[in-house]
Design a protein that fits this description.
InterPro entries: ABATE, ABATE_dom_sf, Znf_CGNR. This is Putative stress-induced transcription regulator. It comes from Solirubrobacter pauli. With 180 residues, the chain is mainly alpha-helical. The chain is 44% helix and 9% strand. It is built from six helices and four strands; from the N terminus they run ααααββαββα. A hairpin with a 6-residue loop joins strand 3 and strand 4. The longest helix is centred in the middle third of the chain and has 19 residues.
């Protein structure tokens, strides 16, 4: 895969050409995938306030002010990733309000702007996904921990892409078996 294509992973491209998660859950998926641990740290879309603001604007969020805000977003992202993987995670308190739409449906919206507003928005999406049952299909690759939406019938997908991480894993197992 070309380097310019790798930089688009998580935004325009998904490993293995998977479709993104449905509805607003795609926003949470994109947020978690702002950095893939297989890529260099300088490719982190939340690496500092400048790069974070560029990603946040593209995703439809307001901006943040400092590199400390970017650090908080990265820590929150890794807590979300841990939750998807099944590890323990701790989340900051989030100020939210309940908004009632014209059709009578409710949703949680952030009560603040900035970094706290981003965190509240993403936690609101998490809450919606848990209520709808979509959260059970949100998974992380066993190898690289890239977040993906499992559309398989039996919900058994384990890798972001069979041709990338699945192939690496199976090749390593094969070579281990071949060694005396």
């Amino acid at each position: 895969m070309r380097q310019e294509d790798k930089r688009r992973i998580g935004e325009e491209l998904e490993p293995g050409d998977r479709p993104k998660a449905p509805g607003r859950l795609a926003l949470l998926q994109r947020f978690v995938n702002t950095h893939n641990h297989d890529f260099p740290p300088e490719w982190d879309r939340l690496g500092d306030a400048r790069t974070a603001n560029a990603w946040l604007a593209k995703a439809g969020f307001g901006g943040i002010d400092t590199d400390e805000d970017a650090r908080r977003l990265r820590a929150f992202r890794e807590d979300l990733r841990a939750l998807i993987v099944g590890r323990a995670a701790t989340f900051p308190p989030a100020g939210m309000i309940v908004v009632v739409a014209a059709d009578g449906h409710t949703r949680l919206e952030p009560a603040e702007d900035g970094v706290d507003g981003v965190i509240a928005t993403v936690l609101g999406v998490l809450h919606e996904a848990q209520l709808s049952g979509d959260w059970a299909r949100m998974k992380a690759c066993r190898k690289c921990e890239y977040a993906f939406y499992d559309r398989s019938k039996n919900r058994s997908a384990t890798w972001c892409s069979m041709s990338i991480c699945g192939n690496r894993t199976k090749n390593r197992a094969y070579y281990r078996r071949q060694r005396p």
